[in-house]
Amino acid sequence: MKNILIKFFALMMLFAFAFTVNAAASEHAVESTKASTHQVETYKSQPMGDMVISFLKSTGIVALVHPRANEMSATGKPMSNFSKGLGRIIMILVTFLLFWLAIAKGFEPLLLLPIAFGGLLANIPIAGIGGPHGFLGVIYQAGLSNELFPIIIFMGVGAMTDFGPLLSNPKTALLGGAAQFGIFGTLVGAMVLAQMGLVDFTLKQASAISIIGGADGPTSIFIATKLAPELLGAIAVASYSYMAMVPIIQPPIMRALTTDAERRIKMTTLRHVSRLEKLIFPLLVLGLAILVLPESTPLIGAFMFGNFLKESGVVERLNDTLQNSLINITTIFLGLGVGSKLAADQFLVPETLFIMVLGIIAFAVGTAAGVLMAKLMNLFPGHKVNPLIGSAGVSAVPMAARVSNKVGMEYDRTNMLLMHAMGPNVAGVIGSAVAAGVLISMFQH
Amino acid sequence: METNLILEGIKFMFLGMGTVFVFLVVMIACMNIMSSIINRYFPEPQLNEDVTTSNSQANNKKIIAAITAAITYHREG
Questions:
Q1: I need a labelling partner for A59 at 20 to 30 A (CA). Which of A95, A274, A312, B61 fits?
Q2: What distance in Å separates the CA atoms of residue A370 and residue A249, rounded to the nearest whole number?
Q3: Distances (CA, A) of A406 to A106, A166, A234, A249, A392
């Protein structure tokens, strides 16, 4: 009897359970039918003609000819119809010009190609690749707006740099300092333009532009993102295209400022530099930067880190990574991120033209200052300096040093200036990093 | 804006160039001091070089011959 009662209860429980499950399931079923009716409500069946028209409205051609009223720029501001339509077409043609310069003319292709392709992508309507959710915008946010990529590039450049020539003839470092006059001379020039009311550059913007005269791509990008991110595209393009044009810009200035006898000056052979000197030098410079100008230590610190790894000789794998894979990967991202700033609304502005003009003046002034400094040094007793290596004081490693060597060989085929010119060349990198630190420190308060 | 921008620029120039030169002059001085200390107290051992030169005397002659040939070729071409 008791047994039957238990069985009965169990059966009841089973029923109850089954019933609740069933009820829940049916409730769920009701909900899902509700949801499906909801979906049916939003998706109206359209006639084929309407579908074709709405698709055509989303094509690039229509977006370029009849810009969408609600399309915002990458920074979230409204844009003029010009920078949504014709401006984009012009910019796409500009990127084709950059492709041509990079591929046919060999102008710094490693950076110009990623920059130009980034620019092409950033000017696509509707897709918003350069915007906050587009991949170029994400790259920009990840490593450019926080100045990370230029610093990583600097580590790689440090690992590629040999301070031997500078260590064996330290006084040539002064040439690298004189060439920084290009930066500050151009800053004054930009301020003159602003005072005359030709352009509306603030002191910050003028500083960011004038750093082009340092002839150092990563430094220019570092300063531009810090002081005037709205001008980054133009500054980076000017900086890299002028660096590529060093063999065209520099020789006429070098010839104009030197006599034939000066161009034939032979310099004493460089002494051997011990490994210990090379190993201590990066720490020495970093120590000085810490004491004199901490603002310059992000750049100098990264540079000397790369160099220290190289000279230590015990971390060949890391050194190799810095010099090759890391710098290559970062170059791709840096180029694309800079390219995102080639969007029409940011690049097709009158300021760009002034940046291009001021940039080339900065280069020319820097070159001239380096050459004149070498002539000044020859007035003092001691080993004579060939003024042609003064032009290598603008960084642009190693292009500027090669130009010095080439011009020197034109006048005396046995006069090898390359290693002598590498001294001011690497000093120029340090000099422009210091100049960058000065500019940053002046805007800190 | 009433501030004289040109004057500001010139101030920047003097401060900037001054800092760059002071930095480099101090750097040059330190480099000279460092080099003289290292060369006096921690000279690089020269022994290894002597051994290698005597071992590869024949090899060196070949290299010198190749370099001379390259230079004459370069001068003629």
A1: A95
A2: 14
A3: 18, 20, 30, 14, 12
Rounded Cα–Cα distance for residues A337 and A118 (Å): 7
3-state helix, strand, coil in chain A (%, to 5): 75, 0, 25
Residue B26 in contact with partner chain A when CB distance is under 8 A: yes
Cβ-nearest to A293 among B6, B19, B75: B19
Looking at residues B65-70, what average pLDDT do you find?
86
Report how many domains make up chain B. Answer: 2
Assess whether pLDDT exceeds 60 at residue A17.
Answer: no
Residue among A185, A277, A284 minimizing CB distance to B13: A185
Is A209 within 8 Å of A363 (Cβ atoms)?
no
Query: Are B2 and B14 part of one and the same domain?
Result: yes
- Interface contact flag, A274 B42, Cβ < 8 Å: yes
Residue B37 and residue B51 share a domain: no
Cα separation, A312 vs A281, in Å, equals 11
What's the one-letter identity of residue A441? S
Scan residues 42-61 of A and list those with Cβ closer than 8 Å to B: none
- Contact between A199 and A351 (Cβ < 8 Å): yes
Query: Is A195 in contact with B6 (Cβ distance < 8 A)?
Result: yes
ipTM confidence: 0.83
Q: For residues B10-33, give the mean pLDDT.
A: 94
**Best residue of B11, B12, B71 to probe chain A, by most A CBs closer than 10 Å:** B12
Q: Please compute the mean of the pLDDT values over residues B11-15 and round it to a whole number.
A: 92
pLDDT number for residue B74:
83
> What residue numbers bound the domain in which B61 lies?
46-77
pLDDT digits (tens, 9 = 90+) for A190-235: 999 888 888 888 899 999 999 998 888 899 999 999 999 989 999 9
Question: Residue ranges per domain, chain A?
Answer: 147-442
Q: Are the beta carbons of A365 and A146 closer than 8 angstroms?
A: no
Q: CA nearest A431 in B: which residue?
A: B20
On whether both B11 and B39 belong to a single domain, the answer is yes
Q: Which two tokens stand for residue A252?
A: 């006429």
Q: 3-state class of A264 per DSSP?
A: coil
Question: Do B34 and B50 lie in a common domain?
Answer: no
Q: Tell whether B25 and B50 lie within a shared domain.
A: no
CA dist., res. A308 & res. A327, Å (int): 16
B44 in contact with chain A, both atoms CB, cutoff 8 A: yes
Kindly state whether residues B26 and B52 are assigned to the same domain.
no
